[in-house]
Specification:
about 140 residues, mainly alpha, two-stranded antiparallel ribbon, about 5% strand, elongated, transmembrane
């Protein structure tokens, strides 16, 4: 239960830090904070669980918490207008390249991407750890 509370506390803190520092973040750092950090945290939480029931629970609960973080971040930044400032500051177009930042973080495409980005690595970690655990237990006989 403590782990669940810590997971949600981590994502609440990440939401607050992300919202407050959004305008000072370059796009790559922002992407790392909103996508990469939750993926790494979710994967580690799944890998570090020893019990199978807890491993399954945390492999589903961690991405759900990350998704709530994403929805909260998107809602508060779009509602306050900070997101549009970030988009205007970081949308660049030259003759050689173009960087476009999505104006709506709550569009279906963005939400589906976030769900897949948060859930897929946790699912892969869960199934790999289950497979390796089954292979380790193969051939062991109990009296």
């Amino acid at each position: 239960m403590l782990t669940i509370a810590l997971i949600f506390l981590f994502y609440v803190l990440l939401t607050v830090v992300s919202i407050n520092s959004l305008l000072s973040l370059p796009v790559p750092l922002f992407l790392g904070m909103i996508y990469l950090v939750p993926i790494v945290v979710n994967s580690l939480i799944t890998i570090l669980q020893k019990e199978n029931k807890k491993k399954l629970l945390y492999s589903l609960l961690s991405p759900a918490a990350a998704f709530l973080f994403y929805i909260s971040f998107a809602f508060f930044t779009m509602k306050s207008g900070v997101w549009l400032e970030f988009v205007q500051a970081n949308t660049v177009s030259t003759a050689d390249m173009s960087v476009d930042v999505a104006e709506n973080l709550l569009s279906i495409e963005q939400i589906l991407f976030a769900v897949l980005a948060y859930l897929s690595p946790s699912a892969v970690c869960y199934f790999f750890s289950r497979t390796s655990q089954l292979n380790t237990n193969k051939g062991v006989t109990y009296a």
